Amino acid sequence: QVHLVESGGGSVQAGGSLRLSCAASGYTHCGTGMSWYRQAPGKEREFVSAIDSNGRRSYADSVKGRFTISQDNMKRTLYLQMNSLKPEDTAMYYCKTDPTGWGCSVVYWGQGTQVTVSS
């Protein structure tokens, strides 16, 4: 079982930056791919960014050029550097595992960290 804990959220003004972290613990043989999602009040949870086991990154169009995903596999920590924040980035941000491989179907989510961007 994998346990994920996000941190780094907070309140910033538009144009500011935050760096989210997601610390993983527990054993998995299902690769190191992980993602960030977010959910704003009254809206569905949406994809933000992902990094796969080969280090390939993907981003939602709304955050391209502003957010950067990275991963420290030695520390088992996922990061999301968020620059040029906008009020529409306000949401609860969640990290999740993206399991790959035989017998790997269970997805783990963190509890979330709140990001609030004021105009």
Produce the secondary structure layout.
Layout: E1 3-7, E2 10-13, E3 18-25, E4 34-39, E5 46-51, E6 57-59, E7 67-72, E8 77-82, E9 91-97, E10 113-118
Parallel strand pairs: 2-10
Antiparallel strand pairs: 1-3, 3-8, 4-5, 4-9, 5-6, 7-8, 9-10
Describe the structure.
By secondary structure, the chain is an all-beta fold. It contains no helices and ten strands. The chain has a six-stranded mixed sheet, with no helix packed on it. The mean pLDDT is 95.
**Class by alpha and beta content:** mainly beta
- Strand percent estimate: over 45%
Helix content: under 10%
Q: How big is the Rg?
A: 14 Å
What separation lies between the terminal Cα atoms? 40 Å
SSE ordering: EEEEEEEEEE
The major pleated sheet works out as: 6 strands, mixed
Strand order in the sheet with the most strands? 2-10-9-4-5-6
According to DSSP, the number of beta strands is 10
- Average of pLDDT: 95
Total of DSSP H or I helical runs spanning 4+ residues: 0
Question: Looking at the chains present, what oligomeric state does this protein adopt?
Answer: single chain
Please summarize what this structure is.
This protein has 119 residues and is an all-beta fold. Helix content is 0%, strand content 48%.
Question: What are the key terms here?
Answer:
119 residues; mainly beta; six-stranded mixed β-sheet; four-stranded antiparallel β-sheet; elongated
